[in-house]
Task: structure prediction
Amino acid sequence: MKAFEQLDQPFFDELSLNTTQTDLLPQALLSAHPHTWTMSGEGVFSWTVFKLYRARLFVSGAHYDLNQPFVLDLSYLRTLPAEMIVSASIDELKRLRQPATEVLQSWSDTLHRIVPDVTLDDRLVGCFTPGQGVSFYSATALLGEISDPAFAEAFAAIWLDPETRSSSLRASLLGEGAVTLKEGI
Result:
């Protein structure tokens, strides 16, 4: 995982930070979580020379706030087995939050039940609700829910914690990086 880093080039150059992007989110998510979602930022996550996914952060307020609902949308740029996704996630949860062994095992078991294998253009979308947990969606359906606020906070930390492995992706997601999203589309 140490070789993972974010590319500086934005995937979309012309999206507005000031407009809602509800057409970009899965309908199942929008129906279950009827907030006004605004895209905060986006970037591409890579490992060595391989682009793995495009990440986008949508917020329910004016900016990212851990105490407000938010959505992390990953659109995969290659095929990855669920086992690899879950394993990398668990490694990061362990590194960032050091949960007890039994808690980490429970999180791993739950992720294995929810996360599917992905192929090019597949999406895994997490809707984080503070104090409640996280709901996971594909582009078309609910995949599962984890009603554990500690898990939701720890899982979001993989991308949004100051100690994330990809500080440039974090900055892009939070709208702090070199990504400029212009008004007009």
